[in-house]
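[[Per-residue structure]]
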Amino acid sequence: MHFTVVPFMNHVLYPFLRKRGIRWGSISRMTFGFALGTVGSIAYSVLQYYVYKTSPCGWNATTCAEIVPEGETSVSSISLGFYAIPVVITAVSEIFVNVTAYGIAYSRAPKNMKGLVASLNLFMTAISAAIGLATAPVIRDPYLVWAFAGPTIVGAAFTVIFWFTFKHIDQEEFVLNTDFSDMKKDSDRESDEERVSPPKTIDEKKA
């Protein structure tokens, strides 16, 4: 999905907004992405709540097949297709947040530290995955609603905090310099300068 939505954003949506005089700053885009992620998490929480309400085993929905007699219905009547709604919403939110964050991290980093800063930005994803693994034991019945609702509440709070913390740089222009000379080491750049012979000067006294 990212392969289709990202080009649409870069070549259709953003140019359209700029032509209409609407400037959508980087911090505004990330805040909007966080807000979309919150909405998607709310949808997960609501769906899980109704799965419990419509499950033959109530709050033991994930182990219902082990509880009901063989041959009886052990699943909720909620269609799996409804889960496409929060999946799409959260996927789009990642585009607004991650793509913009990569651009900011790369453009604001010193020339010799762009790779390091981009790596630190990606390291945040590793921390998120570690938190998910650490909390995996509690992601079970009957706590699945709060498994979605808890991060939703925290995410909503941090969305507001993020905006008021970084809104002062929302109007800054972040330009990605793709000049290959930026990728050279200082020693390589000095070697290139040594290869260029200095221009000859005319001795005025001999002239």
About this structure: The CA atoms of residues 158 and 189 lie 43 Å apart. The longest helix spans residues 26-54. The mean pLDDT is 81. DSSP finds seven helices and no strands in the chain.
